[in-house]
């Protein structure tokens, strides 16, 4: 074996030895890893975001003007009851409007008794009783709520009771029949537009989650 070939083998052995030593010291990397400077920059890019307590409540501002009596009352609602949300309430009010209105039209007062104040129940019951005395029957179908908006809110700090007034414009068909089976009012095909302002009340933070209808108007 000549001298140049031996020298080449020795150099190759030294190279392998150095590579193994470097792997032991530095470790092996697999896949793509950006340089530390680039990686840190990606994580730091953009301003640091911080949640500021006491900032604007969009749930309130979506339905009431900032600084208005209604907005102030809604903020008090939330302070008294952490589960209260304006949008959630309005979604429930939409369903309550249909349920109560249809039960009234059909004379099914017992089904909505838990959701009415005593005064409203008596007012509705008088109308229903009057229809029955005249032998009138109502057939109604709810089409939907065309418009709905929060009109006002108030909070009684002494009792903890909150009141919310909501404007509804509903659409329905309604037909009134007499004892002889003749139509005395309405039409099965004509859609009637119903305009109402209903006021709901509840003691905020109480165990009873139900809002009650305490006043009606137009």
Note the main attributes of this structure.
4 strands, alpha+beta, elongated, Nuclear Transport Factor 2, Chain: A, 4-stranded antiparallel beta sheet, 218 residues
Fraction in helix: 25-40%
CATH architecture group name: Roll
Please indicate the count of domains.
Answer: 1
Shape, principal axes of CA atoms: elongated
Let me know the number of strands: 4
* Rg, nearest Å: 36 Å
Strand order of the largest sheet: 1-2-3-4
CATH topology: Nuclear Transport Factor 2, Chain: A
Largest sheet: 4 strands, antiparallel
The residue-averaged pLDDT reads 82
Based on secondary structure, the structural category is alpha+beta
Note the run of SSEs as H and E: HHHHHHEEEE
Number of helices: 6
Low-confidence stretches: 16-52
Which percent band covers the strand fraction? 25-35%
Assembly form of the protein: single chain
CATH first level: Alpha Beta
Give the N-terminus to C-terminus distance in angstroms: 113 Å
Describe the structure.
This protein has about 220 residues and is of the alpha+beta class. It is about 40% helix and about 30% strand. It contains six helices and four strands. It has a four-stranded antiparallel beta sheet. A hairpin with a 4-residue loop joins β1 and β2 (about 160-175). The longest helix has 24 residues, at about 5-25. It is elongated and about 65 Å long. The relative contact order is 0.12. Residues about 15-50 have low confidence and may be disordered.
């Amino acid at each position: 074996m000549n001298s140049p070939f031996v020298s080449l083998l020795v150099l190759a052995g030294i190279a392998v030895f150095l590579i193994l030593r470097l792997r032991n010291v530095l470790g092996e990397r697999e896949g793509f890893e950006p340089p530390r400077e680039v990686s840190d920059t990606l994580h730091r890019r953009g301003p640091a975001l911080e949640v500021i307590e006491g900032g604007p409540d969009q749930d309130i501002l979506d339905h009431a003007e900032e600084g208005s009596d209604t907005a102030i009352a809604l903020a008090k609602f939330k302070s008294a009851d952490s589960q209260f949300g304006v949008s959630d309430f309005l979604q429930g009010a939409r369903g309550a409007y249909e349920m109560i209105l249809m039960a009234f039209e059909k004379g099914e007062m017992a089904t909505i008794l838990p959701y009415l104040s005593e005064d409203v129940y008596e007012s509705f019951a008088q109308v229903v009783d009057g229809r029955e005395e005249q032998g009138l029957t109502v057939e109604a179908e709810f089409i939907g709520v065309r418009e709905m908006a929060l009109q006002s809110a108030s909070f009684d700090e002494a009792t903890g009771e909150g009141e919310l007034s909501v404007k509804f414009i509903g659409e329905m068909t309604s037909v009134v029949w007499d004892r002889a089976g003749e139509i005395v009012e309405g039409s099965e095909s004509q859609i009637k537009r119903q305009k109402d302002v209903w006021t709901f009340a509840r003691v905020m933070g109480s165990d009873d989650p139900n809002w009650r209808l305490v006043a009606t108007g137009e």
